[in-house]
Design brief:
alpha+beta, about 55% helix
Length: about 210
């Protein structure tokens, strides 16, 4: 059994343990009072008509992903996404159980706050990823993004959402040959690993020129 498959096998068990220790009482997939069922949706920023799309496959516990999120992505957003040149799509590729938990919370965040919650989790990665009780800070971040305690509980018990993220990860592995994080598709070019802004921008510029 590969490491990827072992991770996938353990994710459901881990979420079940979280539910048990968190005292969640609702049945699986049943929303708590005042909440709505959450279904899987893409996390996308930028012009939907942009000629180039960047797709990032990332794990919320990956330190290289965190550095990209803090040091490179803000410049990419400023110079390419906010100017309408590029569309950015974030896809979860959780490498461990904690990353899956964070991924579920980001998909449950209200309105357009999923990417903001991901930004908060990457910024504070060392605080929660190495904590003996990581759910407490994750819950606090989710509440900063506008989720109530009941919504957090319902989210972590959403088996359909969990399965959808696992299915997307499996698709990334089999169809797009994603093996590590971060992995990017900039247009039709696949790039992997940690990159400086200058090198990443060069790839974007090449794809923009190709798309003209």
């Amino acid at each position: 059994m590969t490491q990827f498959m072992r991770v996938i096998r353990d994710l459901s068990l881990f979420v079940a343990v979280l539910l048990a220790i968190g005292g969640v009482a609702a049945a699986a997939d049943a929303p708590a009072a005042g909440t709505s069922p959450v279904t899987y949706h893409e996390l996308i920023e930028g012009n939907p008509k942009a000629k180039v799309t960047i797709v990032e496959f990332a794990s919320l516990t990956c330190p290289h992903c965190a550095r990209f999120a803090q040091e490179v992505l803000p410049l990419v957003k400023k110079n390419y996404v906010d100017t309408g040149k590029v569309r950015f799509v974030f896809k979860d590729f959780p490498l461990d159980q904690l990353a899956m938990t964070g991924a579920m919370l980001a998909r449950c965040a209200p309105a357009d706050r999923g990417m903001k919650l991901i930004e908060i989790m990457f910024k504070n990665q060392l605080e929660w990823a190495r904590s003996e009780q990581p759910i407490a800070p994750l819950r606090a971040y989710a509440q900063l993004a506008g989720m109530s305690s009941a919504q957090v509980d319902a989210c972590l018990q959403n088996e359909k959402l969990l399965q959808a993220i696992k299915d997307e990860q499996s698709k990334a592995s089999t169809l797009y040959q994603v093996e590590a994080t971060p992995t990017f598709y900039v247009g039709d070019e696949k790039v992997s690993g940690e990159m400086t802004y200058e090198k990443f921008a060069a790839v974007i510029d090449k794809q923009l020129a190709k798309a003209k």
